[in-house]
Amino acid sequence: MNLPRPSLRDVARGAGVLAVLSGGYGFLAMLGAFGPVSCWTSRTATETSSGASTTVVTRGCEAGIDYLFGSTGGNAPVLFFWAVMLIGLVAIGGGAAWGGYRHLTWASAVVGTIISIIGVMSIGWYFMFPTLCLLIAAIALTVKARRESTGRRPTAI
């Protein structure tokens, strides 16, 4: 059985689709589709007139979608901003990979890499897999462009 060998353009397109799908999952996760993203605890000590103190503990959880509903402060605006940044990055990068625009794919991959490294302790994990897919797509498009410019084909193994 002879299976067709994928071309470098097919590899770039596949990696771009994976970037969009995984970025969409990260977008939904930061918005809170799969549960709260950020939880917090607040302790407030109050003293009564008799000298006794009471501690009131308040707990809450939030996600990016809470920013749109205006129901909470805290990290909701930040989570919403990064969710929109993620979906925008993978939409641009995935579309560029699908269309064969290697420079735009590289730009998206570099921006995603920078965000992944800077935010490795928080939102960077949501950017990591889509960025890896965009890097694969950018490398495949670059190798394709180099092969076309030199006219060489790899030797069969």
Describe the structure.
The chain is α+β, with helices and mostly antiparallel strands. The chain has one domain (about 10-150). It has 5 helices and 2 strands, in the order αββαααα. A hairpin with a 5-residue loop joins β1 (about 40-45) and β2. α1 runs antiparallel to α3 (about 75-100), α3 (about 75-100) runs antiparallel to α4 and α3 packs parallel to α5 (about 125-150). The two termini are about 20 Å apart.
Q: What average pLDDT do the residues reach?
A: 87
The largest pleated sheet is described as: 2 strands, antiparallel
Helix/strand structural class: alpha+beta
SSE sequence, one letter per element: HEEHHHH
Number of DSSP helical runs? 5
Strand-residue proportion: 5-15%
Number of strands: 2
Question: Summary?
Answer:
This protein has 157 residues and is of the alpha+beta class.
List keywords for this structure.
157 residues; alpha+beta; two-stranded antiparallel sheet; 5 helices; 2 strands; transmembrane; transmembrane helix; membrane
